[in-house]
Amino acid sequence: MRRAYNSVLRLPQINMCPQCAAPSMPHRVCPACGYYKGRQVLTITAGA
To answer: How many domains does the chain have?
Structure first.
């Protein structure tokens, strides 16, 4: 019974961003380009 819950745990799903093809979580703003559902939500600046 203690190990019955282990089969329920799953890794987070990763989708490819349609704008920049970077891996990102579904239903989240892409951290690489800042787009969500075809429109820019965040302004990403190039920096170190």
So the answer is: 1
